[in-house]
Write the structure tokens for this entry.
Amino acid sequence: MDVFLQELADILEIDKVEPGDVLADFEDWDSLSVLSAIAMIDGRYHVSVSSQEIKRTETAQDLFDLIQKKLAK
Amino acid sequence: MNLRFANRAVSGLLTVLPANERLFVDEMTAFNFPAARSLKLKQVMGYDKHRLVDGQVCVSDLAVHGMEHLFSHGLLGRDDFDALIVVTQTGDYLMPPTSNVIQGRLGLKHDMFCIDINQGCAGFLIGLMQGFMLLDQPGVRKVVLINADVMSRKVSAQDRNSYPLIGDAASIAVLERSEDPTTIHANLKMDGTRRDALIIPAGGMRLPASPETAVREADAEGNLRAPDNLRMDGSAVFNFVQTEVPPMIDALLQQAGTTKEAVDSFVFHQPNRFMLHKLAEKMQIPYEKMPSNIVEHFGNSSGVTIPLALAFNLGERLRTSRLNICLAGFGVGLTWSSMLLPLGPMQFCEMIDY
């Protein structure tokens, strides 16, 4: 989880992301950040998530849970 | 679908780029985004400059310019070939075919197999396949394969999703029979259920162009585009490429009984540097064996990016030596295809401007 949060923080170019942070509240959470997140998740976890799936998640924790759910399949 | 060919060669390759060059930093003021985010996009995706036609330039204009260059420099005779394939999605007219337009403008003989193929990012490979098959006919001595698009004319300049990466270009490849018995392996897949990922919604019979289809509206991200414009679902295309391309290449190499190490260069369609780097990482291919520099120099001209990547990165080597090349194209359709073939030494492999 810590690694995942740090990757998200790097994409958003900020120091730290907390699990409860609402993604849409970040100023830089735009289509480029979403694509960067898709690429990061594909590269690190080898799972494919769509931008629609990402947009349906609210917090960083929700996004992490989505990846875990896909990994469990 | 797997395909095989033998005794076939690409004996020459010419690319034609519009001389008109535009810079991302000049164009980003039209985008509905903060400058800092646009600069971030430039850095991540590898956008810099691109070549766009200036005004009402058509596919046949670029193609005729290139063909006349070959004729006048003695690289191809006007009567030396019997088939003309044109791969494009931005033909001069809905009818007649652009291949007939080019035949007429060049004053070519009537004894000529002209055919248009409506394909995009994988179009160069599909053109090669069609050309290699035409060479089964004894009456066909050489095939001229023209791949050209002027897609910038269909992209909204206020669409940050597509405009920064688009480019216009043409390529001319001469295909002929050869003594080389090396088997050329290829594969091809299509999925029309995902046809909406890359589409120009209006202008065909389904939704004819009208004043209404020219009206630009903002999408959820703030990009302005009309139904007349190209629409690309960037993240869907990204996922498609990362999911489908690596296993396709593995299957191709397995079919050919060879390995990644035995391939001199992986010359793939150039959507942008970001996507190619991610692909290289996933396939464990060193960046230097997979060129990714076409979009930053010239833009993404659909299927033409493959011959551009060959001529720009390997031009000198292809003139003098024989390389084992893996080509791949993937995009609109959706269509994805790859081919493993020996290329070079070519009679010519060069780039000119229009």
